[in-house]
Design a protein that fits this description.
The chain has about 190 residues and is an alpha+beta fold. About 40% of the residues lie in helices and about 25% in strands. The protein contains eight helices and seven strands; from the N terminus they run αααββββαβαβαβαα. The structure holds zinc ion (ZN).
Length: about 190
């Protein structure tokens, strides 16, 4: 389903009127078009699927070691306020013979982030996709994010970071594996 840019433009024009703005003033004349294009980009994840994103970049690799990719930047939109939340995603998995190409985990995270989201669901979708795509022995995903709907509206919530994690397979079953993941992921700075 393609994005209906014309429809978004009309809505943004209405929005500007509804908040008491003048959509005809110089700075706003092209705003509805720009907003429509931005929304097309920010929601591109609805028009993508894992097969295309990963694009066959799954390789055979005999290893039982944990693969970790830390500090993947994520930018998403909370579905309750349509405001951004952003932060870092850390991914770990134990392959059973298949591994992802280096950039693909970040692409996967982007795909799910470019939809209206809850941080919890985003975390789970990424871990489940990894499990499904490479048949991992176990997967752990942690996201640390700041939500503008809290930071811009709340009082004294500017420094709160929401942390979510999703563990599957051996990461769920084995405390040792889970602890190894958490230790490798560490406590990254923001
Ligand atoms: Zn929100």
């Amino acid at each position: 389903m393609a994005v209906d840019l014309a429809r978004i433009e009309k809505l943004v024009n209405e929005l500007l009127l509804a908040i008491g703005e003048d959509p005809r003033r110089e700075g706003l004349v092209r705003t509805p078009r720009r907003v429509a294009e931005a929304w097309a980009f920010l929601t591109a994840g609805y028009r993508a699927d894992t097969a295309r994103v990963v694009n066959d970049a799954i390789f055979t690799q005999e290893t039982n070691s944990m693969v970790i990719v830390k500090n993947i930047e994520v930018y998403s939109l909370c579905e309750h306020h349509l405001l951004p939340f952003y932060g870092r995603c850390h991914i770990g998995y134990i392959p059973t013979g298949k591994v992802f190409g280096v950039s693909k985990l970040a692409r996967l995270a982007d795909m799910y982030a470019r939809r209206l989201q809850l941080q919890e669901r985003l975390t789970e979708q990424i871990s489940q996709a990894i499990m499904d795509l490479v048949g991992a022995r176990g997967v752990g995903v942690m996201i640390e994010a700041r939500h503008l709907c809290m930071m811009m509206r709340g009082v004294e919530k500017q420094n709160s970071v929401m942390v979510t994690s999703s563990v599957l397979g051996t990461f769920r079953e084995s405390q040792t594996t889970r602890e190894e993941f958490l230790a490798l992921v560490g406590h990254p700075a923001h």
